[in-house]
Lipopolysaccharide biosynthesis protein
Amino acid sequence: MGIVKAQAYKNTIVSYAGMVIAYVNTVLLFTKCLSISEYGFYTLITSISVLYSLAASMGVPSILAKYFPAYRTDDKKHSGFMHWSAGLALVGFAIASILFVAFKPVILSYFNDTAHHIAQAGKFKKPDAVRDTPYLVEYYYYLIPLSFFVLAFNYLEMTGRIIYQTIYSNFLQNVLLRLITSVVLLMMIAGWVNFDTFVLVYIGSNGLISLLQLISIIATKNFSYKLDSTTLITVNKREILGFGLFTMVSSSIYVLLQKVDSLMLSAMAGDGVQGVYSWYFNIAIVISVPAQALSRTTYAIVADAWKANNRQNIIEVYYKTSIIQMLIGCLLFIGIIINRENLYAIVQTPEYVDPKYFDLFLVIGLGFLVDITGGLNTYIITTSHKYRLITALTIFAAIFCIGLNYMLIPKYLGMGAAIAYLLTTVFINLCTWFYLKLRFKMQPFSYKHLLVVFIAIAGWAVGKYFWRIPNVFLDIAVRSGVTTLCYGLLAYYCQISIDINDKVDATLKKMLAFIR
């Protein structure tokens, strides 16, 4: 866990810095300068670009994670593996783009029928609930360059991961990209730019972080850009391509499970409904931050452990990441709940913060908690020789999720999508947990996971019934601080995570030494 500790803590700091910026954008800026429909479209194109890039990638990021250890060489050419994988990604993107253009009428037909679906649902009475021309129709071709930049960054980010260079890419994606978004939103508030400019700058900023990541990779000097005509002979193209196709399908469907709610809500209920749902989804996504920080390092650790047949290392990482992610995730979950009134006081935009919508956060937040507590279950299977199982599981889960959304959205709108997301997440994590326990004798749970639940309940009670301070921002600081202190002391006393306790002890020793 030495590498995991060293980089995970730094990645966590960067991720939380990004989280703060994201929250400023979501709570303060988006609500001031974008209508709920514009915000819904913004989240829609981010969802589509992620799916587009995954389908176009041919599974190359997963290929890098699994096979790079086998092709790594001292001469930095790595048997031509990096050149071959980059070429595969470019071919995949070209094919996906041709299909994206060819199937434009079919894709847009689902979104052109939005008004019909809303009329059937009978939920919206406002004349502006549906635009005459959906945003996606106007901005359809913008998705091609955006998806290319997302694909390029994913490739370059994984290239950094396989050589254990993870912090800079985390900064680019979670801090710099969001800071650029903040600047453009402030310019919108000032009236200097419009929504069209915002979309263009967002696309360009994705290109910028890809370029900066490329420069960073070149600077490491871990890769040679010279290629001999005989180099690629050593690459087992058939095996790798088979793995890539399987993981492309499974990864695309897995992400689809997280994005299908937005896609179906936009198509069946309009960008406005999807905007409300996505706003609360983005509030809840903070719960997954610890998992995102850890996964940047642990994915490569697990792949290397499988290569060395070191199952004990996998079991150790599996358990430790699960308990750490659950511990931090629960604190973030209750932290948002206890500050519900403060959130509404800050936003003060009725179309975003109608109190009846807060249940969306509760259901979605539980879904995130289930997912991060599952730990590395899908990573472990994906990087093993049983990776095909994930493909089969995600296909079945996608059918299950789409079916639930189709049944629940017409009646319950956003809450229907939230319920479908929660149930699907529970299903996937139960299946992967059961398989790892049965097949590999691995499972991450212990009595300490139950202790975390009781500690979370105690922390929630402290925060909920704490005296309310009239100043909103002071109340957030004090209420959150008191809750975190009580939560942290209980977690430390119960020794929920030895790694966190060791980090706290080391920090306290440094502070005492500094004072002395």
